[in-house]
Amino acid sequence: MENYQDFMTRENTGKKIRRQDDILDYKITPEKSDEEKIIKELGKLVSAGKRRAFLIVIVAISFTGFNAWRLSKRPPVYEGKFQILVEPVTLSENKLLRVVTQTLGDTTFGTNEGLDYESQIRVLQSPKIILPIIERIQEVYPQLTPAHITRELSTKRIMEGAEGTKIIEVSFRNRNPELVKFILETVAEGYLKYSLEERQTTIRQGMNYIKDQIPVQQADVDRLQGDLESLRQRYDLINPVVEGGYLSVQAQRIGPQLVEIQSLLAERESQYATLQNLFERGNYVSILSKEAATYTFLIRDISIIDTEISAALTKYREESDTIQDLRQQKQELNLRARREALTILEKVASEVQGIQDRKELVLQDQMRYEQRLRQYPTMARQYADLEQQLQVATDSLNSLLTKRNNLQVDAAQQEIPWQIIAPPGTPSTSTTPRKTYILLAIVGLVLGLIAAFFAEIINNVFHDADDIEEETRLPILGMIPIAKELKRGTQKRKTLAPLALAGTGQRKGLDLIGESQYRQSSYISSPLLEAFRSLYTNIRLLSIHKPIHSLVIGGAIPNVGKSTIAIHLAKTAATIGQRILIVDADLRSPKIHTKLDLPNLRGLSDAISTDISLNEVIQRLPNEDNLFVLTAGSLPSDPIKLLSSKKMHSLMEQFQDFFDLVIYDTPPLMGLADGSILAAQTDGFVMVVKIDKTERSVVVKALDGLKISGASVLGIVANGSER
After folding, report:
1. SS3 of 547, please?
2. Which of the residues 86, 270, 318, 694 has an alpha carbon 20 to 30 A from that of 138?
């Protein structure tokens, strides 16, 4: 065995036992949306239903079967019925009724499409109709109460197809067949009497209503005609449609006309400004040249005199008579040119003024039409409203006149009573309706669900990993599936197939529980192996910068599989080349040596209480280079004293310096402080929770205890998961 004396005396300058703040905080998942919460709750209900399906079925079958048996033992009940035709079958017979109901708008007797059967049945069941009938029944059967009769008396419309028939069926149930027949005969007689009286009353009401409404409608027609005429006069309007078209055409014509006038005005104003500028500078010839055809000779004379003056100046002096005569002639021509230029200027100014006047007239027309266009929608709406109201009032008046004529013509046909088409016969025994059994089945199912609900409350354990994560708010580091191989190996086998280290190609002699999972291969895959690989990976990823070197694996209660998980986690880590030490810190009921088939003559308790060398207590598994075990050793009288000692703390530091990962297996947390003491001295605590075995309250209390001790809880391992 390798010499371990070097790390017994080595200074603790390497790895240090890390505290809670070195571990990455578990990030609480973001708040879920309402839709996700609803889906999650529905998923929980479905899962609970699957778990309690047997209980639900038993309760539902028991309740339904028992009550169905009770119904079968009851005395026979007799049922009788009769059918009554409440509407005429032919259109000619139905004509008068339709006229009356349309006139009164009476929902009791139907709409334009026929009888309102829901309302009619309610009327037949009303106290006004049914109480007189009950009084006649009580004359023969005084012991019957109104509540008993109305409870067993059923009135419904016979439905055949989507629209249904014009027949109402009345039925009554009782254990006395003679009573059934008598009540149905009395009810049929009362309904026929009611139908005749009601129709006579309806026709009279219709005649009076029409007589009162005709003057009112005539007054409305006259008033609306007057309002329409007043609107035409106020707006000087004959037809709104014609008026709208005329205003639209005028508005379209004025726009281009105004643009043309503005363009011409700008042109004339520019021309006037140019001529005025030439006039002020005395350039009359340029002004005259604008109308060269009229002033050709004057322009020519001015040009000639200018030429003669220029020629004379070459021969004579300015003071000479010749030059003075020529100057005099030019002055006379300039005066004449000035007068003509002023005439042209005044003419252009007159044109500008005329164009401006035209512009003002067009703008006034534009404002007038725009004002009428703004008023047009209001005027047209008022006109249309009045015209529509007048049309409605006229139609209503014509309708009343037509109905009055129809009532007068058909008054002789006012008696249209209902007809009994299937009179009350001999009552027959009635069977329990199918809907009763369906209702019993539904109630039984509801009771089964209630029983399942209370069973879930009583058996308050974790059912899946999601339950654990939601309750503890801690990450699920791993989900260990149910493995039958583990159970068989624990009960029947001690020495199993040796472990094949990944990539070595050699078989090593390591006897582990469930070791038949591992085959000689470069990579072995199974649900169990993948679960432990995932667990180890998740633990490593908890702190990337400062890897976890020591951890405690424990549970809130016994028998949750913590020792088995510790062994498989250690083997998984050793397989990838990590130096792993398993420390059996359960000094009350150690199991590691039993599961690994190792001797437990000396172990952790001996290393703490004596000066024995670690070489003598740490064991390397046969033919395994990276997996080491420190068994519990002899059982002490006070495990807490040993685990909380300075010697134990020193040993934990030495373990962490020498090994890549140290895994401590501890006793259950509930009622014992062993696990909390060790967890506070390591990088963290991994809680093992057994699915469908561990109660929620126990886990919560255990986590609270760890929190008080200052231990860092890395996460949860869900043992026995089905997924």
Report:
1. coil
2. 86
pLDDT tier at 502, thresholds 50, 70, 90 = very low
What pairing do the DSSP bridges indicate for beta strands 167-174 and 428-430? unpaired
Residue 584 phi/psi, 5-degree rounding, is: -85, 95
> What pLDDT is attached to residue 494?
36
User: For residues 605 and 641, is the Cβ–Cβ distance under 8 A?
Assistant: no
Distances (CA, A) of 49 to 24, 400, 470: 38, 66, 19
Residue with token string 């140019």: 274
DSSP secondary structure code for residue 113 in this structure: T
Strands 550-555 vs 685-690: parallel, antiparallel or unpaired: parallel
Determine the average pLDDT of the residues in 431-443. Answer: 78
What was the pLDDT predicted at 282? 81
For 35, the token pair is: 């839709």
Cβ 18 vs Cβ 657: under 8 Å: no
Region 578-596: what's the mean pLDDT?
91
Q: What is the DSSP letter of 507?
A: B
The answer to whether the beta carbons of residues 169 and 82 sit under 8 Å apart is yes
- Quote the CA–CA distance of 303 and 285 in Å, as a whole number: 9
What are the two backbone dihedrals, phi and then psi, of residue 328, each rounded to the nearest 5 degrees?
A: -65, -40
The full 3-state SS of 511-541, as one line of letters, equals CCCCHHHCCCCCCCCCHHHHHHHHHHHHHHH
**Residue range 668-686: average pLDDT?**
88
Contact in structure between 604 and 583 (CB atoms under 8 Å): yes
- 3-class secondary structure, 500: strand
What token pair was written down for 252?
């379209």
d(CA 116, CA 99): 15
Rounded distance between C-alpha atoms, residue 547 and residue 569, angstroms = 16
* pTM of the complete model: 0.44
How far apart are alpha carbons 287 and 338 in whole angstroms?
9
Which amino acid would we find at residue 583?
V
Residue 700 CA neighbour count, 13 Å, CB half: 11
Return the CA Rg of the chain.
57
CA-to-CA separations, 117 to 85, 110, 114, 197, in angstroms, rounded = 12, 8, 9, 18
**Spatial CB neighbours of 87, under 8 Å, sequence gap ≥ 6:** 94, 97, 110, 114, 115, 166
Q: Which residues pair with 480 in a beta bridge?
A: 719
- In this prediction, residue 407 carries a pLDDT of 67
Q: Are strands 419-422 and 77-85 parallel, antiparallel or unpaired?
A: antiparallel
Task: Assign 646 a pLDDT band (cuts: 50, 70, 90).
Answer: very high
| Residue for token pair 């009601």 | 198
Contact 467, 47 (CB under 8 A): no
Of residues 621 and 579, more confidence is placed in 579
Q: How far apart are CA 627 and CA 467, in angstroms?
A: 34
Distance CA 652, CA 608 (A): 11
- H/E stretch holding 481 reads strand 476-481
Task: State how far the Cα of 570 lies from the Cα of 555, in Å rounded to an integer.
Answer: 17
Asked whether residue 631 carries a pLDDT value surpassing 80, the answer given is yes
Alpha-helical (H) ranges within 281-320 are: 284-288, 296-312
